[in-house]
Amino acid sequence: MPLLSPEAPPRHVLAIDIGGTKLAVGIVSSRGEIADSARTPTHVEFGPDVVLSRIVGLSRDLLRRHPVAVDMIGVGCGGPLDTGRGLVKNPPNLPGWNDYPLVQHLQDALGLRVALDNDANAAALAEFHFGAGRGTRHMVYFTISTGIGGGLILNGDLYRGKFGNAGEIGHVQVEYDGEPCNCGGRGCLEHYASGTGIARRARKLAERYPDSLLNTLAEHSGEITAHTVKAALEANDSATVDFWAETIEMLAAGVASVVHAFDPERVVIGGGISKFGDLLFEPLRSRVKARTMPPLMEGVDIVPASCADDVGVLGAAAVALGGQTMVVS
Amino acid sequence: MPLLSPEAPPRHVLAIDIGGTKLAVGIVSSRGEIADSARTPTHVEFGPDVVLSRIVGLSRDLLRRHPVAVDMIGVGCGGPLDTGRGLVKNPPNLPGWNDYPLVQHLQDALGLRVALDNDANAAALAEFHFGAGRGTRHMVYFTISTGIGGGLILNGDLYRGKFGNAGEIGHVQVEYDGEPCNCGGRGCLEHYASGTGIARRARKLAERYPDSLLNTLAEHSGEITAHTVKAALEANDSATVDFWAETIEMLAAGVASVVHAFDPERVVIGGGISKFGDLLFEPLRSRVKARTMPPLMEGVDIVPASCADDVGVLGAAAVALGGQTMVVS
Fold first, then answer.
1. CB of A320 within 8 Å of any CB in chain B?
2. What is the residue range of the signal peptide feature (chains A, B) (predicted)?
3. Taking CA A60 as the corner, what is the angle to CA A59 and CA A65, rounded to the nearest 5 degrees?
4. Are residues B71 and B25 part of one domain?
5. CB contact, 8 Å: A183 with chain B?
6. Cβ-Cβ contacts under 8 Å for B9 (sequence gap 6 or more)
7. Which residues of A112-145 are buried (b: 16+ CB within 10 A; e: fewer)?
8. Distance of residue A312 Cα from the nearest chain B Cα, in angstroms
9. How many Cα atoms within 13 Å fall on the side-chain side of residue A266?
């Protein structure tokens, strides 16, 4: 479902992406063109009012430089949120934002309607409208970075569930008697296969195999991250190859579970771990296919996200343009 | 979403439930009242044409006895189906139904429009419109019997996915390195916690604990089924109590995964295993709650299905009345 018919002149919206480390603001057309944008560190340590005033300043600069008709503001922000009331509720990456009335403040300062959604839903909308999910009606988006989040496009619309929390597919539980996860669950995909989970498991592996290249790389750099795993994997370190096969199996169990539940046309995977590229996508496609009923697997693609570093701004724009979100008018 | 406003006079439909062991036909109002119904063994051994002619005979008898205006036929049938073309495609419980054009044959014989859906989707619609899911907009239905199937009501409608196969939530994979399942996957919930899975695992348990009450009951009756497990559990057999706790953990991982994905208001559980009653529902509620993020768990009920033995006929009726299904006009 295109946001506007191809013939119609494009609308423009102001897109605001609020992350724990950086802010991005852009003017984006309904065709997904970024007319202009600005980025700056968030400096969460100064609290929400200071961050808000910097967002407002950046926004006014952009609006002054680009006097196109901007009719709305879209915001993507780390959750949890109360989208019904336009509040930011204690996100782990935005300390001090306790029921912060972001929508009301932005509307008062900038005089435009504001639509708000969480960053994973915003990214799913970005991929659906402007990226790797274009042309589908049923798309599941995974973001695999520090954690694992998701967003669901069902029947051409973002699906939110009862309280707007649908799509927590990082907490699909791939080991019923597994390790405890921060969420309260056990054996969650995020606990094992997020960037954090991969690094934690890799640290144990390096201890167990002190002669492995993984451990050598770790001793050299003083730490193990997902990057260390990627480097050891590219050098064909045998302990790391086995470790990665197990990680792929965990991810494949999670993706196959989601495919059985949703029968999507496409699974789009973004986030830092998607930069493993073919090391991730080739074995994952093969293992998901092996683990999924044939009629469900037919014609489902597992593809990398394509909005890249613009996903935050494009996602915030898509929240305004296409999300069925809270709108203060 | 009620099928009709309470004031409107009810519509009536002919409901046909085709199972591997029995057929049921009924005249059902849009308020879920069964005006009349008939049941008979399916006798699959005679093949689809004979089964069809018996369905048509039963239907004509009912329509003659109850001359209300019946405007449509709804059919629930074991899948796989091709609902787009009205075909039954080789269901395991209906041998010989190879691309059988059920919709066309029924329409030709009875002269009414026909809507067809699989039995799990039909049961989900029955619970949503007439049973334990009434009043919700987001409901997940599990049926735990020989296998584990499901149906998804999202935003007040049955969700079908790309090819109509959404809701295969028996194949959520709760053990990434688990045993192979018939579906091709590994560690599927159905493999462990369906009636068949429970009986298979219980047979191993009885071998391991020859002094257990479970084994004594098994030797007495000559077999182990889910009923044997229930009897041993009610007598507090310690091996069976531990076995059941593990089964609950598997089910809780599956239900928690589905709750994280869909953020439903209610999870409705039907099928033979739901007759374990409080032995199932009390520990399952507690373990799903423990395994689920608080905002997702708030206000989600896990309840038994309530359509009981009428679920087949009510489901077939709901397919005609409320399903977004294939309609040959």
1. no
2. none
3. 100
4. yes
5. yes
6. none
7. bbbbbbbbbbbbbbbbbbbbbbeebbbbbbbbbb
8. 22
9. 21
Phi, psi (5° rounding) for residue B89?
Answer: -115, 90
A171, A185 contact by CB (below 8 A): yes
Same domain, A251 and A141: yes
Helices A119-130 & A311-321 angle (0-180, nearest 10): 80
- Is any Cβ of chain B less than 8 angstroms from the Cβ of A293? yes
- Tell me the three state secondary structure of residue B254: helix
Mutate to test the interface with B, among A137, A172, A176 (most CBs of B within 10 A): A176
Q: Which residue of A has its CA nearest to B153?
A: A161
ipTM: 0.92
Structure tokens of B301? 């009920």
The reported pLDDT for the residue numbered A202 is: 98
A138, A165, A177 ranked by CB distance to B249: nearest: A177
The answer to whether B163 contacts chain A (CB < 8 Å) is: yes
Instruction: Supply the range of the domain harboring residue A113.
Output: 12-125+310-328
Question: For B137-162, what is the mean pLDDT?
Answer: 95
**Farthest CA pair distance, chain B:** 63
User: Are A266 and A148 in a shared domain?
Assistant: yes
Chain B interface includes A174 (CB < 8 A):
yes
Residues in A closer than 8 angstroms to B256, CB to CB, are 171, 173, 185
Would you say residue B122 lies in a domain?
no
The continuous run of DSSP H or E covering A244 comes out as helix A238-262
Sheet holding A139-144, edge to edge: A157-158, A148-154, A139-144, A266-270, A301-304
Examine residue B127 and state whether it is found in any structural domain, yes or no: no
Q: Nearest-CA distance from B301 to chain A in Å?
A: 12
Nearest CA to CA, how far is B54 from chain A (Å)? Answer: 31
Nearest to A253 among B176, B252, B261 (CB): B176
User: Which residue in this structure is represented by tokens 């988006």?
Assistant: A141
pLDDT 10s digits, A278-300: 999 999 999 999 999 988 888 79
User: Is the minimum CB–CB distance between A147 and chain B shorter than 8 Å?
Assistant: no
B169 vs A162, A261, A291: nearest CB: A261
pLDDT digits (tens, 9 = 90+) for A61-114: 999 998 889 999 999 998 888 888 999 988 888 989 999 999 999 999 999 999
Residue pair B244/B251 in contact (Cβ under 8 Å)? The answer is no
